[in-house]
Amino acid sequence: MKWTFFHGEEIYLSTKITNYISVACFAFFGGMARASLNASFGFYGTFWGNIIGCFLLAFFTYFFMEFKDFHQWLTVGLGTGFVGAFTTFSTFNLDTLKNIQANMPFTALIYFLSSIVFGFIFAFLGMKIGKKVGLLVRKDD
Amino acid sequence: MINLNLLLAGLGASVGAILRYAITNYGKKHWEWIGKKFSNLPIPTLFINLTGALILGFVFGIGSNVFLYALVGTGVLGGYTTFSTMNTELVELYKSKNYRGLIFYGISSYFGGLVLIFIGYYLGVLFK
To answer: Which amino acids does the record list as binding Na(+) (chain A) (predicted)?
Structure first.
């Protein structure tokens, strides 16, 4: 990838390095978004972040599969970087542990099972809708 | 308002996501044969999520100050592990009618993650 600056300097970066930089930059915002959800809503924030993230990642994955006119750094940045860092598996497990330790096994069970079920359903919906939208946009061209 | 904890979480998440991206790229090249032996399991994500759960349990158990936890726990480990990639992969397994892989991947992720967070936690308490 070529970057040209305003005074004419040109910098060449390999696709690989560009992708890594993109992942890091997008992940910064994904992580901050998750942390602020977590700070405001506790484990409900983690739950909703994860569920929305499942929809978004499946949507992006299948949308970009149909509609290929995007730079790789953008698709990798949005998917692996932003949404990947926005969702979290480790905190999901830790929230379950905290609820069990706080003597709320029922809350832990509901949280654990509903994350599993809704995560899958929302990823499935994201796949379906992403594919449809991708095909629609491609037809308009 | 952006406070220091959010900034630390964001910076940590960048590091975690780079690690995840690097391991996924490496695993797709070198660990495919392991996945083939177990109904096409996505080994890289499974490895990332399970190790992330173990380490987060440890970090939580050993107890650290708020800023260190924001950087390492919420940031690095939160950005390193991923819930969305796992579910997208589960949907892919379902779509390819690999139901054995779907059940196997689901159980090993969710059950394995729960067991490992407890193991990590008690190890952390032990080292406190």
So the answer is: 84, 87
